[in-house]
Design a protein that fits this description.
Number of domains: 2
Largest sheet: 8 strands, mixed
Structural class: alpha/beta
CATH topology of the largest domain: Aminopeptidase
Shape: globular
Strand content: 15-25%
């Protein structure tokens, strides 16, 4: 593995692995833009409003307005959820996330009740206006309610190498090695929650541009292509036609719908076989 890619792997799977809060995203963006600027100068960052208190941001590499093909991946860290990751079903995935929020909130509330019970029964009868115990309780409740407020809004998945850092790393490799004017790259915000970031991309491209979305590239699971763009069939890759105008490349399994097992989602190493096969697939449009 080349030294530059090793550096990217360390930076975006360790140093800037969390991209959930606005502060975390800004740190990631500063590092990310710097890294790309060392190999390309056709990079652009745009801001747009969402229903959150802060602006969201997309990053474009290449001529987004004239490119025939736009390779896309979201960069925000997904929220934690129960069960497997369900692709293409935001409603069901949202329910999985809500279960995780409710579970974490209930556990935290029970902890607060337990601490309150112990304090009342063990220390309240010996109360002193100024004491170490009282100071500890005040600090505990300050932290407690701050954490509870955060949990009620959801919390992020700590293991996010597969979803979706692996896709970001793959696109970085393509950006460095392939400078075709036909292809542009888009990294968009809020992709774990909805289509707002993509809608902003779509407004910036020409009408007949083709979009390829990457997700969970590098998981130890089947590599799938959904869409009608790619004609060259690669051994070991599952191809599915689609009525959707967009194209998707991702790792996962299929029963009634596409999914990626929680265990494989939380892996801490990239499956480079699937990673490199994805690059091979994308060479068709380069």
């Amino acid at each position: 593995m080349e030294d530059l890619f090793k550096d990217w792997l360390f930076r975006y799977s360790i140093m800037f692995r969390f991209r959930y809060t606005d502060k975390q995203k800004k740190k990631f963006l500063n590092a990310f833009v710097h890294d790309i600027s060392l190999i390309r100068d056709d990079i652009k960052v745009i801001e747009y409003k969402t229903n959150k208190k802060y602006n969201s941001r997309n990053i474009y590499v290449g001529n987004i307005k004239s490119a025939d093909y736009i390779i896309c991946a979201y960069y925000d860290t997904p929220p934690a959820h129960f069960g497997d990751y369900i692709l293409f079903n935001r409603e069901k995935q949202g329910k999985q996330t809500m279960k995780a929020v409710l579970f974490a909130s209930i556990i935290w509330i029970l902890l607060g009740i337990l601490v309150t019970f112990v304090y009342i029964n063990s220390f309240l009868s010996k109360i002193e206006l100024i004491s170490f115990t009282n100071l500890f309780v005040v600090i505990f409740y300050l932290i407690y309610f701050l954490v509870l407020a955060r949990l009620s809004k959801g919390y992020f998945n700590f293991n996010n190498l597969i979803r979706n850092t692996s896709s970001i790393l793959l696109m970085l490799k393509l950006i460095k090695e392939n400078k075709s004017n036909r292809v542009a790259y888009a990294f968009y915000d809020e992709g774990s929650y909805g289509e707002k970031g993509f809608e902003v991309i779509k407004r910036a491209t020409k009408k007949n541009a083709k979009f390829i979305f990457l997700d969970c590239i590098g998981a130890d699971a089947s590599l799938n292509v959904v869409g009608n763009l790619f004609k060259n069939k690669i051994k070991g890759v599952m191809y599915y036609p689609s009525k959707d105008e967009h194209n998707y490349i991702f790792c996962g399994e299929r029963n009634e719908e596409f999914y990626l097992e929680k265990k494989k989602l939380n892996e801490k190493e990239i499956n480079y076989t699937q990673f490199n096969k994805t690059i091979e697939i994308l060479k068709e449009i380069m």
